[in-house]
Hints:
8-stranded mixed sheet; 3-stranded antiparallel sheet; BirA Bifunctional Protein, domain 2; alpha+beta
Amino acid sequence: MSLIIPKDYDPKLSIRETQNAIRYIRETFQTEFGKAMHLERLSAPMFVQPQTGLNDNLNGVEQPVSFTMQALDDDEQPLEIVHSLAKWKRSALKRYGFGLHEGLYTNMNAIRKDEAVDNLHSIYVDQWDWEAVIDRSERTLTTLKQTVQRIFKVIKHLEDEVWYRYPEAVYHLPEEIHFITTQELLDRYPDLTPRERENVICQELGAVFLMQIGGELSNGEKHDGRAPDYDDWQLNGDILFWYEPLQCALEVSSMGIRVDEKSLQSQLEMSGATKRLQYPYHQAILYNELPLTIGGGIGQSRICMLLLGKAHVGEVQASVWPQAMVEQCQTAGIQLL
């Protein structure tokens, strides 16, 4: 268990005030985000059948929560709680007839039972998952950066609205976001670990979009693991903020331009995961039966935590924590829901 206790922590808002602020942030963000990105809100599954290949495999080692359903035959079992909707969204865009530059967003709720819980991580994941159709000519860094700028603008505008309602509680964000690749970051700080590099660059610049995550760097290591079958590792990244209350980088979004047939094949080969090519989802990409897309996830609890200056994600979501962590938080005035 890793827990950071800020010195003289003041949550600013009571639990009931915090709950009201959470509701306001969630409702306001999704409305403004949908308008700014031209996205329609859809319902989404909480569980899928593994044989479809639709579940997010994350780093390939996390085990999904699974269960059986009485009405299904044995060969249709089990069902898996989603890790994310990264793959489902792309299939949904085709199934529901979305055209070029149209897209969707949805509330995604997941369980990641293998997550190491701390101030920023919970086994319960809640995020806005989104996906939009793009043209093949738009599979570029320019498209990626322009999309990041639009998302950053929505977050900044929400900061102003939260400040108007809760001026004593809002955490102020930097005025702009900077772009850097994982290789550039390694070249800049070769003696630091990936997490240390993220902390240093975010403290220096305030807000960073860290690009090209998943592939091997010049030192023979990966900056971070990333599933090989949804993001194109050359066209993806994370939105990170320097978070003063915890003195660390805070990731609020992972996103990217999705794999086409070439990058899918290449990344599966590099990952030793070519057996996934048998799944319907992967076959559909290989034979250009799914639209080319850009998409990602934006953490709902992370956005609430960031804007309200909270010290623990458990202050903005209800989950389960080790008793020792609960007691430490209570002593420090960190109000877990």
